[in-house]
Structure formats: structure tokens, C-alpha cells
Amino acid sequence: MPELPEVEVTRRSFALQIEGARILAVTMGKPLRWALGCVPDKLVGSQVQQVRRRGKYLLIDLDRGMLMVHLGMSGSLRFASDLPALGVHDHFDMRTDRGTLRLHDPRRFGAVIATSGENDPVARKLLDGLGMEPLDASHFRWEAFHAGLQASRSPIKPLLLSGKLVVGVGNIYASEVLFASRIAPTAAANSISTLKAKRLYQSIREILALAVERGGTTLRDFSSADGMPGHFQLQAQVYGRNGLPCMRCGNAIALLRQGQRSTYYCPHCQKT
DNA sequence: CGTGGCTCCTGTTAGC
DNA sequence: TGCTAACAGGAGCCAC
Q1: Among residues A56, A65, A63, A71, which one has the least CA distance to residue A101?
Q2: A222 CB inside 7 Å of strand C
Q3: Is residue A146 marked as binding?
Q4: Do A36 and A111 reside in the same domain of the chain?
């Protein structure tokens, strides 16, 4: 479900409240994608220092160790002091003296992993090799992005989704940024003109930033940790609009399958 | 190494 | 209305 904007909106919705909190108890539900990596009781007594994000991972720094949280396809976090009883899809529940952090994840593609810190082998394995942070101007450099495109013959849509060049662009935003920059999703990355590559670079920055500003996209059930839904779907130009008229030229939006994922695009506006 | 296919799991929706 | 199949916002792993 969540792409970078939803993860960032989630982070902002509870980071300040949970900082300094002391962990009182941890309860696990059904198993998630990976085991927690330690007995839940081991977390008790630790203090939350800050909540960061790398790609679609939330990194919760503790005075001893680091919790990594991934929302997968259907995950969402809540942080509140008055949460209802655990539901069948609540699989991680961390009670603190400031409130309870709870992961709700019906499909269980998400993860909560306890590591010793950023240099923990498990953390390294998941974080090493991630691409540039699109909302970090000093990290997301045009020169590096352009060089990355030039170095790949992969179709641009799956390359964006892979996170190897730039992180956080998921299935919705991949379609949206390619439409905005008028690039065919099937175009080989190294065949994209410098002009279009520049538009793509700008679109990634602008569209993701706008989505964060708007509170993320809620297609089904996304909400941030304070329970607020997103509003960005009102802005979607192509995603989910198969057969409907293109907002730019009026021709029908087409649907394409790339690597088992749906891609929406305008065949008229997005050539090569 | 880069690339593509499969897989995990549950819920919702489209089609008959 | 009920059944079934397809599909859903991710990404690690394996085989080429």
C-alpha cells in the first residue's frame, strides 16, 4: 500500500510524540514477513530516541538498538494512548509511557525487525544497495540520476520500481511521474533523451513532495499514525484510470503489465 | 551483475 | 445471491 509519501506521512504523524518514550510491553500477533529477531520482552525498558526513514523503511532508534518497520502492501501504523483491543490483523503492539504503537497489516507483507543498529548485518542487508532519497536535495543529484539511467537498458517503469536508482517510487507514483514527464513506461532507460530525463528527475521530486504535503494517497485503507486518510488520489492523472480520457489529450488511458504489475499510461502523450 | 519471474498473505471486486 | 478468479500500494529470492 504505502509508497514513500505514505511512509513519510506516517513517520511525521508520530515521530515527535514517541521520541523519549519508554517501552513498557511488546505483543506480537501472527508472524510477519520476517521474525522480529529477538524475544519481544528484550525491548522492554528501552527508550525511543528518534524516528527516521530510509526508502520505505521506518527506522526507530532506541537507546540500545534500532527497530526497522516496513509497511509492505497493506500495513499501517497507529500511535495513540487509547487504542481498541487487538484485532486479528494487528501483529505488532508496542506499549510505551507515551502511547501505543501498533502495526495493522492484513496481508502481512510488512515487517518489524529488531537490530542492534544501523551497522547490524541484518540492517545492512536491507539498507545497503538502496537508491537515492528523492526528497533529499543533497542526496538526489541530477548527475547521478542521469548516469544511472544511462547505465541501464531496463524499461524505465520497472527500473523506477526497483529502488536501485531512486527509492520510494512505488506502483502509483511510477505511473504518475512517467505521465508527467511524457515518457513511455516501456522506454529503455538509456534511450531516454536528456530533456525527458530532466523532466523525470523534476517530476519525481515534485510529485512525491506534493503527495507528502497532501497527506499521502489513500486508495483503500491507508491512514497515518494519527488515523488521518490521505488525499492525493484526487490528483492521480493516470493511475487506475484505464479506458478513461487522458487529462492532457483526451485519448484513452491504457493499461499494461510489466513484471506482474499494472502500469497506466497515455499511449498518445507518452511515446518513447 | 542485470533482469525477469515467483512468492509470501488476505481482502475486495469483477464476471459468470 | 453465490462462487471463482483476478488483482491489490512491496520486495526478497532464485534461476537464467
Answers
A1: A71
A2: yes
A3: no
A4: yes
Within a domain: residue A133?
Answer: no
Judged by phi (left if over 0) then psi (alpha if -120 to 50, else beta), residue A116 lies in alpha
Instruction: Kindly report the backbone phi and psi dihedral angles of residue A261, in degrees, each rounded to the nearest multiple of 5, phi listed first.
Output: -120, 145
The CATH number assigned to the domain holding A162 equals 1.10.8.50
Please tell me the total count of domains within chain A. 2
> What are the cell numbers at A220?
483503500
Please give the Cα distance from A80 to A83 (Å, whole number).
Answer: 6
| pLDDT per position as a tens digit, A62-109 | 999 999 999 999 999 999 999 999 999 999 999 999 999 999 999 999
Residues A109 and A151 occupy one common structural domain: no
How far, in Å, is the CA of A258 from the C1' of nucleotide B4? 10
Q: What are A241-256's pLDDT values in tens digits?
A: 999 999 999 999 999 9
Residue with minimal CA–C1' distance to C12 is A126
What's the domain range around A14?
Answer: 4-127
Q: What is the distance between the alpha carbons of residues A106 and A22, in angstroms, rounded to a whole number?
A: 28
Cβ-based neighbour number of residue A152 at 10 Å: 16
- A68 with A43, same domain: the answer is yes
**Among A56, A257, A57, A55, CA closest to A158:** A257
Nearest nucleotide to the CA of A153, by C1', is B2
A199 labelled binding-site residue: no
Q: Which residues of A are catalytic?
A: 2-3, 56, 261
- Measuring from the CA of residue A218 to each C1', which nucleotide is nearest? C9
